[in-house]
Amino acid sequence: MNIPEMFASNVFNWQVMQDKLPKDIFRSLRKTIEEGRPLDNSLANIVANAMKDWAVEKGATHYTHWFQPMTGVTAEKHDSFITPTKDGKVIMDFSGKELVRGEPDASSFPSGGMRATFEARGYTAWDPTSFAFVKDGTLFIPTAFCSYSGEVLDKKTPLLKSMNALNKQALRILRLFGNTTAKAVLPTVGAEQEYFLIDRSMYYARKDLRFAGRTLFGARPPKGQELEDHYFGAIKIRVSEFMRDLDEELWKLGILAKTKHNEAAPAQHELAPIFTTTNVASDQNQMMMHIMKRVAHKHNLYCLLHEKPFAGINGSGKHNNWSMTTDTGVNLLDPGSTPAENGQFMLFFMAVIKAVDEYQDLLRLSVASAGNDHRLGGYEAPPAIVSVFIGEELEEIVEALEADKKPAGRGKKIMKLGVDTLPELPKDTTDRNRTSPFAFTGNKFEFRMLGSTFSIAGPNIMINTIVADTLREFADILENAPDFNAALHRLVVDTIKKHKRIIFNGNNYCKEWTAEAEKRGLLNLKNTAEALPYFTAPKNIELFRRMGVFTEREAASRQEIMQENYCKVVNIECLTMLDMAKKDIYPAVAAYITDLCACVREKRAVFGTISVRSECELIEKLSAANESMYDKANEIEKLLAEAKTCSDVAVCSVFFAEKVIPAMNELRAFADEMELVTAKKYWPFPTYGDILFSV
Ligand code: ADP
Ligand code: MG
């Protein structure tokens, strides 16, 4: 297998465009795309035709405008290329208009009250910065999705807007440092993806996995992750075959799949691609999750992407590695070695710190979901409190700058930013704290609070926007300063003084941190219902408006969609739980009790006075627990009826978080207790032991 040849073989990238398009057309297309201008009609027609010919060669019969509505997953509607001719035949045709713009009937996508159904039509517009590709006989065209009144209905458009905002403000800073060559600054992202692989039969045997994507019942198995033997452990043959297939599929689509390994929990694994521009990384992560599921199917496996498929063992997250790079290839979060580079690095670095401190709420809510609530703060993932890890060396530098003294044991004198070089930062020592939600790892920040199913668009919209706005503030100050280096130094020191409370290098999992964070005045938004209302806090609306990312209406609609989604997810989980409790678990336990009673009767009939103590104990225990579960199920039914009467979705989400979820946990506890003492052949679905060690 020739991997370089296979790589991106199904992608309509620059190389293919150069091969397939006349020279002048290619040049003007490239220029138009790089300058972010709309394509004119004649150019679009030529490109569309070349794209279609190439796609047909690859076996495509259809095309689709592939977009990312607010459902969090992607959407596609396939149209064939066929066009009838006068003689009753067809030709394969694809026009520039069809390439550039589509009109899916969009009435069934969530819009958060923004769009009444009578004005249902939205349109999709090609995002030429993300390449088209062929998959399963269809040409996929990555697009953005808007309503006709121009309101944004997807996750991609605001992501692109946030990238623009960052580009604009970061360039202002670069100019201040005398950089006149960079034409653009792009945020880059590498998203490490965690997932579980189980045997497909296990998936189909459990309603909770099928309807909710996670187990709603399940007692602890005899073996969990306590031996720590799975993390980086040898990969089993079936998993390894899956991974090889997956890599190949991803490579064909131009996705830079790089690292794969076993994760902490049994049956848990990770895949990390090499980083790329944020919107491409976001498209590719969506595709990666989709391909994972498909390849798993081929291997008779099921890929679980839920944040917490199993209680009691680690859930799955997604680490969002983020940095900023110039079009000339300079990573702006790389400290560099000259005084100017150091000064510039410290400014960008402090911009991120300040942004994270001022907008903890936005980062927190960007990772809020019913699924992720089970992870954050669960001593396996960072807590719900946002803080930044910067490592010992940087902390020393930051402290020295703040106190205006020389860094301990390093430089010989007091540093002046922009004039002196910083003490060397050893790269590999920065990434040892795995508990921090937002960690500086040498030349990038790693945002570790994302859940595994998330579209990375949401969190990256926030990161780009808050950093852009902070850079704007910095540029405003520095552009008007008479002495640049002095002003730079002062600005960095002031920023340290004001925002150092967000820096925490200790263990974020320990209880003391929660108390300490509270003392520092950091936010601790424990669940989704608590976090989401911050989306429309006045300071945040103002930020989105300033940076041109969301209008007030768009922000409100997004908040509502996320709240609605939360309520719907918990509601589905509840209904699934009631179904399993009443139709599966209750009758199974009752059957076991009946047989135990028969056993008591038979034993007595045959032996008279023989001991039936264990049977009787079990009968009593199971009978009591089954009854408690039954009562709890009825109680939950009443709660669900009450939830329907909530005045609005925000109130409803709080009701689910505070009333319904605790009741679900209680119901589950009764069932799990019964599972541990019910004979195997009665239990109505596979246990944790069966599922986790099924591959
Ligand atoms: P780990 O976090 O497991 O130690 P690495 O640090 O090697 O792994 O990288 C994790 C991810 O960070 C990879 O996807 C990698 O491509 C990405 N990454 C590396 N440099 C950058 C950067 N400048 N911008 C964004 N992502 C980056
Ligand atoms: Mg990592």
Labels describing this entry:
Ubiquitin-like (UB roll), single chain, 7-stranded mixed beta sheet, globular, binds adenosine-5'-diphosphate, binds magnesium ion, 3 domains, 9-stranded mixed beta sheet, Creatine Kinase, Chain A, domain 2, alpha+beta, Glutamine synthetase type III, 695 residues, Four Helix Bundle (Hemerythrin (Met), subunit A)
Write down the CATH topology of the largest domain: Creatine Kinase, Chain A, domain 2
Give the percentage of residues in beta strands. 5-15%
Structural class: alpha+beta
Instruction: Give Rg in angstroms.
Output: 28 Å
The CATH superfamily of the largest domain appears as Glutamine synthetase/guanido kinase, catalytic domain
Overall outline: globular
Topology:
Blueprint: H1 3-6, E1 11-12, H2 14-20, H3 23-34, H4 41-57, E2 62-66, E3 78-80, E4 82-84, E5 90-92, H5 96-100, E6 101-102, E7 122-126, E8 132-135, E9 138-147, H6 156-176, E10 185-199, H7 200-204, H8 207-212, H9 237-252, E11 257-262, E12 268-273, E13 276-277, H10 278-298, E14 301-304, E15 317-326, H11 339-358, H12 360-366, E16 388-389, H13 392-403, E17 438-440, E18 445-451, H14 457-479, H15 484-499, H16 511-520, H17 528-531, H18 538-547, H19 552-607, H20 613-643, H21 649-677, H22 688-692
Parallel strand pairs: 2-9, 16-17
Antiparallel strand pairs: 1-8, 2-3, 4-5, 6-7, 7-9, 8-9, 10-12, 10-13, 10-14, 10-15, 11-12, 15-18, 17-18
Residues 188-190, 192, 272-275, 321-323, 331, 431, 441, 443-444 line the site of adenosine-5'-diphosphate (ADP).
